[in-house]
Amino acid sequence: xxxxxxxxxxxxxxxxxxxxxxxxxxxxxxxxxxxxxxxxxxxxxxxxxxxxxxxxxxxxxxxxxxxxxxxxxxxxxxxxxxxxxxxxxxxxxxxxxxxxxxxxxxxxxxxxxxxxxxxxxxxxxxxxxxxxxxxxxxxxxxxxxxxxxxxxxxxxxxxxxxxxxxxxxxxxxxxxxxxxxxxxxxxxxxxxxxxxxxxxxxxxxxxxxxxxxxxxxxxxxxxxxxxxxxxxxxxxxxxxxxxxxxxxxxxxxxxxxxxxxxxxxxxxxxxxxxxxxxxxxxxxxxxxxxxxx
Length: 293
Prior knowledge:
Elements: E1 20-21, H1 87-102, H2 105-111, H3 120-123, H4 127-134, E2 138-140, E3 144-148, E4 152-157, H5 158-163, E5 169-172, E6 178-179, H6 181-196, H7 231-234, E7 242-256, E8 259-268, E9 273-283, E10 286-292
């Protein structure tokens, strides 16, 4: 669970105005039959009176008590609608909503270390719009569960749901979720922090929060028409061990169609300075890194 304050080791994420838009995909009657008996039981004779006496349990016997299973109570707080078929989604979003309404931006900033810190004040400022959205019916889509209100849409990714504390993306209703330059730079910042042994949070590990693009044959940043699997997915050791990096050097330097380039200054295991180039695209969990040059 994301219930720990983020490390104070760094607070800045380099940004450029190079937005990349990715759309988060969204995706009873009952029939009743009344049985009609074909044979009616003969009515008893008027001269015959039948009586039925319920038998009592024999002395000393016990009657098993019925056990009724009841769902756990919903924690108090603003209403969050359930996602049909995915009860974990609302359960993961409720703690965030309670913290946002009870503690404010400062509390959720400390817990939402998967979100660029620079984005949180603007993304979560309209608490009323967020509460109206999460009270609306939820839709379980391909990559995220989404609540749509009149003015704001709230979406949580699969990794956020699995964590038990979901920090959502919030964007204007009628638009697509936007992954901007801050998201791209923060993805690289988190990736380098892991390798250097200073992750933004101890729980920030690849198996729980994927930052490397999936190994699918769709990678073609140069537009060759011959896509391959992302090089980093094929060889996770492209970047050697590093001892440190400069978080202020991490910023977007180029954008080409659906691919974004981020540069960063690192110190490798030998103590040598390097400037490395990271190529990213948007996948099911947001930005992912496909190659490092």
